Amino acid sequence: MLKYNELVIQHFKNPRNLGKIENPDAQATEGSVACGDMMSVYLKIKDGKIEDVKFESYGCAANIATGSMMTEVIKGMTLEEAEQITWKDIIEKLGGLPKSKYHCSNLAIDTLRKAIQEYKESMEKSKVESA
Amino acid sequence: MFVFLDNCRTTKLDEKVLDDMKIYFFEKFQRPDGIYLSAQEVHEEVSQAQEYFAKTINAQPEEIVFTSGATEANNMAIFGVARRLKEKGNHIIVSAIEHGSVMSIAKRLQKEGFEVDFLPVDSEGIIKLDELEKLIKPTTILVSVISVAHFVGSLEPLKEISEILKKSNHKIYFHTDAAERYAKLPIDVEDFGIDLMSVSGHKFHGPKGIGFLYVRKNTPFEPLIFGASSFDKRRPGGENVPGIMGMRKAAEIAFDKMEENIKKFTGLRDYMINRIEKEIPDVTLNGARGEKRTPYNVNFSFKYIEGEAISLALSMEGVEVATGSACASENLQPNYAILAIGGDHARAHGSIRFTFGFNNTKEEIDYTVDKLKEVVERLRSMSPIKSDDDLEKYMGSGEELHKHEEVDSNA
Asked: Is the pLDDT of residue A68 over 70?
């Protein structure tokens, strides 16, 4: 068993922003079952700001804790601010992770960025359509 | 409640064992090879222990070599025979579900120029005897098959294996890692046709750092460790007398109660399997049922969730278990035993192994299943995967595992 710090354990025990958002403005799922970790992120966006965020996780304790921390960090941010967050920031906020778990943090950020990207693309598309 | 169910990894020392060991730390701390009287007394007692272990497996005393545990015994047996017989043949067969100890030895031998075949197992984790027959060739010198598959608990057909080996025109030596069988289920090296067998003391409530290798008389074998003369020239160095005597006591306790333990834990095993299958949906039993399974192992995969999270959540409730998830392993690879029995990555990642020690009780099993139900339900509620369709959709190829390694190693 790997050593997790107390904060990571807390987020694993009581993940923040867990679940699904019905009719989200953006959503993405990254990772795969085969490699043992997967994440879904749901965003509610208003005036370019992340009004609400939820996540679901198939994965280990680090996967759940990084998802939880990521959602806590980006809630209320503008999309541009959220895009600037890196996986290293999440690890730092969690007070560190075992090295073999760094990819979990990477997955949380990848999923978030994918959701934002898809949101932006759909906005572009609807602009073009309405123009 | 605290429940330890990772007894295949190690067990708690029996206090009666410690009482016996203390004598050899303080009163009789001498080594057995001195010429003074106290050393002679220790020599006598270590010799008696050797006789005792020999008797428990129907062997001769001089066929027992004390080691630091099963890992050393495995190294001694496999390298010992392989390197000695290299001129006669360089082909070795090991089963696909060996413990990591034998697996890494096999891989090392490949580097040394040996040809190693991995003997496949069926969906219950039992080696395929017909495949063994096909793999044997004139250069085959050694076959190593674990006595009880350490992850999925299958009992390997040791006697049938040796019967196949005896049919060959030339001698093929047969080694078994019996760490999970010795003192738990009967072993008769004559009846089973075993040439070399590894045993570990701490798997049956004995001390850590002690074990033995059974080596059949006249087995060509080269020692791993060289040193000054001592109790046994095949394994020089300061003898672990407290360990040897502690392991003896633990073995005596285990052999006295063997029948009772087999009966009790067969019942508890099946009780636990039944409760899990009845009370938790979407589970898969890994390994065999009934007589082909050790009484001391239960292994399930829980669909749609991952084992590291399950085991960590269980440990927060005081229940300690093992998992085959890649996330819990150093190399981030899913458990090879689950893949060997035909499971996919998801089944490996979601697998949890519960292994019993002689001290586990029905109350502990009930508590474990109760907590397991809660944990599985909670983790499933968090998972984006809710059905087999989701599983299929998000299965992926597993190639992402390598991407993980990159991130982790570049960090």
From this structure: yes
